[in-house]
């Protein structure tokens, strides 16, 4: 084994407040106490001038000069170089032992020409937030400082409070305090110092740390949740009472780094980026959230508000994130796709508390929009988009299931955002009791409610987490009641989606109960003919059938069809689809003959209605063959599939009614048609062949 390399320089690197200076001070005290060094110099190295001044003062003390305070910069530079020369291991200084501490190095360029020389008896100890200062090298040890672990934090608090003479707090109270302050050593030391002079204990202090939300307040509908916390700046000692010789209160710990960012390219984006991140999880978010059009628009507006007309350039956001990481303000790891951007919770809190209520409101809306766009960008690779109805605009839209890895990140982000600024995501107005036929079309939340509130529930459901979707919409219904009152369209919509996903989770009976409750309210508010009421009645029929109540499904669809006939054209899509569902559940309820007759009448009407204007033309008429992809051919094939499904159901219930021969005749005709229209390999043809084989077997076994 080779000789272990001698460490001449140790670099402690980490963000603000993690205890780098405290560790350096402990190392320096031990070295001096144990007489390991003859000279110990501590220099606050935030800029070049302070380093030069520190070296010059040290040289003045070594030589006995008394003019250091009156030196100009040029003379100070000369004195600093003389000090560095004094440290060199020449014949005169070979036996000297020294330790130079360069605390809080802000820029490696500040130390150009000022690094202490290599010396067998000399050591350099550096603390910095800058990863670029902490580069490995010969005889150099880089030590990342990440702050306390939960156990270390509670142990520190217990010992610190005991030193202040405070009564011992319960372990769970200490753990809650440590977690609230992100286990940040600087914050914990200042909290302990504050508690030393307070008339209340740790539990009360933790309650005070619960942030006051400028946007929350009691509701006239009950369930108000005002928060009584105080700003962090009011819960730490004042400048003259900070512990351990600290010079800055924890809310200001990152200020010097941010001021340095201001003078760098894209540095004007540093604070707006922190504002966006302040409403997101401290555990991190994907970089894509900060590059969405919603986030970029916010950054551009903040730049304009600061007086700059410069347009954001491509890659500038990523550059600003790299800058923040390089200054030790955030952690930016582009390779971590889901948690690439992380900000300490204390910095997040300090950032939020510096904003007005109006800014928080604006910011919350932009963050919510950024999350919606990021969810769209994180569509699951290789998944097939599904056609759904956009509840906010009432038109169909293609949705792609969200990447499963992003789903918990999105849910976490929404929970954090709602915890900080939920009122900003609601329209904020109580709704009056609606009148029947009030003109509100469709079922959906208020356009003033942010779509993120509802879409995250849909994301959960489409990701296979139906029970989580139920819980989400249950909570959302409570929040809609709190913010908008019992007549809120958001409340109604949340209850409907809760009912839907309850059914999808396997609780069809629970879905029926939930839909019946909503239907009862809709009938009272809007009347039985309103589109909202009609849509709910159709859903009720579906879930009654799924729950095994075929007769109940028939009753629901029968009433639904009767109401539709009063206000809809008999050939409308809604009427035809309802007739199909009614026919199906007639058969399932024990009336196969009635189902067969209903499907036969529906088939005749479908061919007549869909055949208008060439809607059932043969694919060969478009010149593209059975698998053509032209728009006209796709429409025709979609119409044919609806006809074929109805024809298949008619044949099935005809056989179930005892007419196996009629079922065989109908299915044979259907099979020939499907082969001509769809081609011989379409999956529908296999189902038809199996149904035909079933009834042929029944005929042979008679």
Description:
The protein is an alpha/beta fold and 702 residues long. 53% of the residues lie in helices and 6% in strands. The protein contains 26 helices and 9 strands. It has helices spanning 20-33, 48-63, 73-87, 150-163, 171-180, 185-196, 202-209, 255-262, 270-278, 287-290, 293-305, 316-326, 345-353, 357-377, 407-421, 452-462, 466-484, 489-504, 508-525, 531-546, 550-567, 573-588, 592-610, 631-656, 660-678, 683-700; strands at residues 9-13, 39-44, 98-105, 122-128, 140-144, 331-332, 341-342, 386-389, 396-399. It has a 5-stranded parallel beta sheet with strand order 2-3-4-1-5, with helices on both faces. A two-stranded antiparallel ribbon has the order 6-7. The chain has a two-stranded antiparallel ribbon with strand order 8-9. A hairpin with a 6-residue loop joins strand 8 (386-389) and strand 9. Helix 21 packs antiparallel against helix 22 and helix 24 packs antiparallel against helix 25. Residues 217-225, 389-398 and 437-442 have low confidence and may be disordered.
Q: Report mean pLDDT, rounded to a whole number.
A: 87
Give a short account of the largest sheet: 5 strands, parallel
- What oligomeric state best describes the polypeptide chains here? single chain
Globally, the shape reads elongated
Concise synopsis of the structure shown:
With 702 residues, the protein is of the alpha/beta class. The chain is 53% helix and 6% strand.
List the helices and strands and how they pair.
Elements: E1 9-13, H1 20-33, E2 39-44, H2 48-63, H3 73-87, E3 98-105, E4 122-128, E5 140-144, H4 150-163, H5 171-180, H6 185-196, H7 202-209, H8 255-262, H9 270-278, H10 287-290, H11 293-305, H12 316-326, E6 331-332, E7 341-342, H13 345-353, H14 357-377, E8 386-389, E9 396-399, H15 407-421, H16 452-462, H17 466-484, H18 489-504, H19 508-525, H20 531-546, H21 550-567, H22 573-588, H23 592-610, H24 631-656, H25 660-678, H26 683-700
Parallel strand pairs: 1-4, 1-5, 2-3, 3-4
Antiparallel strand pairs: 6-7, 8-9
């Amino acid at each position: 084994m080779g000789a272990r390399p001698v460490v001449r320089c140790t670099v402690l690197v980490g963000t603000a407040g993690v205890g780098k200076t405290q560790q350096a001070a402990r190392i320096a005290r031990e070295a001096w106490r144990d007489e390991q060094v003859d000279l110990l110099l501590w220099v606050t190295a935030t800029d070049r001038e302070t380093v030069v001044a520190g070296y010059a003062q040290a040289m003045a003390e070594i030589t006995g000069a008394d003019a250091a305070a009156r030196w100009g910069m040029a003379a100070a530079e000369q004195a600093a170089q003389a000090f560095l020369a004094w440290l060199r291991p020449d014949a005169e200084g070979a036996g000297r032992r020294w330790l130079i501490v360069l605390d809080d190095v802000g820029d490696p360029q500040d130390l150009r020409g000022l690094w202490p020389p290599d010396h067998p008896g000399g050591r350099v100890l550096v603390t910095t937030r800058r990863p670029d200062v902490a580069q490995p090298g010969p005889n150099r040890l880089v030590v990342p400082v990440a702050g306390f672990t939960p156990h270390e934090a509670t142990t520190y608090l217990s010992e610190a409070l005991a030193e202040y003479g405070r009564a011992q707090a319960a372990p769970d109270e200490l753990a809650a305090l440590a977690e609230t302050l992100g286990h940040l050593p600087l914050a914990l030391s200042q909290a302990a110092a504050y508690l030393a002079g307070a008339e209340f204990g740790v539990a009360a202090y933790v309650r005070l740390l619960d942030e006051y939300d400028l946007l929350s307040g009691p509701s006239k509908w009950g369930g108000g949740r005002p928060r009584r916390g105080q700003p962090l700046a009011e819960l730490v000692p004042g400048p003259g009472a900070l512990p351990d010789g600290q010079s800055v209160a924890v809310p200001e710990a990152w200020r010097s780094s941010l001021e340095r960012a201001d003078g760098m390219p894209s540095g004007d984006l540093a604070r707006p980026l922190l504002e966006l991140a302040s409403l997101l999880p401290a555990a991190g978010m994907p970089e894509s959230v900060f590059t969405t059009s919603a986030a970029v628009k916010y950054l551009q507006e903040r730049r304009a508000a600061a007086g700059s007309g410069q347009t954001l350039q491509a890659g500038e956001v990523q550059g600003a994130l790299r800058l923040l990481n390089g200054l030790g303000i955030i952690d930016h790891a582009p390779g971590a796709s889901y948690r690439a951007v992380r900000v300490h919770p204390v910095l997040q809190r300090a950032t939020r508390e510096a904003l007005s209520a109006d800014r928080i409101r604006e910011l919350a809306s932009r963050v919510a929009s950024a999350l919606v766009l990021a969810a769209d960008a994180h569509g699951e690779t290789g998944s097939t988009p599904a056609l759904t109805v956009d509840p906010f605009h009432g038109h169909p839209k293609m949705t792609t299931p969200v990447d499963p890895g992003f789903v918990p990140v999105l849910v976490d982000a929404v929970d954090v955002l709602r915890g900080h600024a939920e009122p900003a995501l609601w329209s904020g107005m109580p709704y009056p009791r609606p009148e029947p036929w009030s003109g509100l079309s469709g079922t959906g939340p208020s356009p003033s409610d942010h779509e993120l509130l509802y879409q995250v529930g849909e994301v959960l459901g489409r990701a296979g987490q139906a029970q989580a979707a139920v819980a989400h919409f249950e909570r959302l219904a409570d929040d809609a009641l709190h913010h908008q009152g019992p007549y809120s369209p958001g409340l109604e919509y949340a209850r409907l989606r809760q009912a839907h996903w309850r059914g999808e989770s396997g609780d069809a009976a629970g879905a029926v109960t939930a839909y019946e409750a909503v239907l009862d309210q809709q009938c009272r508010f809007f009347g039985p003919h309103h589109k909202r009421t009609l849509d709910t009645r159709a859903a009720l029929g579906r879930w009654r059938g799924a729950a095994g109540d075929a007769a109940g499904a028939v009753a629901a669809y029968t009433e639904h069809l009767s109401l539709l006939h009063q206000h809809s054209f008999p050939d409308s899509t809604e009427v035809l689809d309802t007739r199909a569902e009614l026919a199906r559940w007639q058969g399932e309820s024990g009336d196969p003959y009635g189902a067969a007759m209903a499907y036969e009448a529906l088939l005749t009407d479908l061919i007549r209605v869909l055949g208008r204007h060439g809607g059932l033309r043969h694919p060969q008429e478009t010149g593209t063959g059975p698998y053509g992809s032209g728009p006209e051919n796709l429409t025709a094939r979609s119409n044919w599939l609806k006809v074929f499904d109805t024809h298949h159901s008619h044949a099935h219930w005809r056989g179930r009614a005892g007419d196996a021969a009629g079922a065989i005749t109908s299915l044979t005709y259907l099979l020939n048609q499907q082969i001509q229209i769809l081609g011989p390999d379409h999956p529908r043809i296999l189902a038809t062949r199996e149904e035909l084989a079933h009834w042929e077997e029944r005929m042979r076994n008679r």
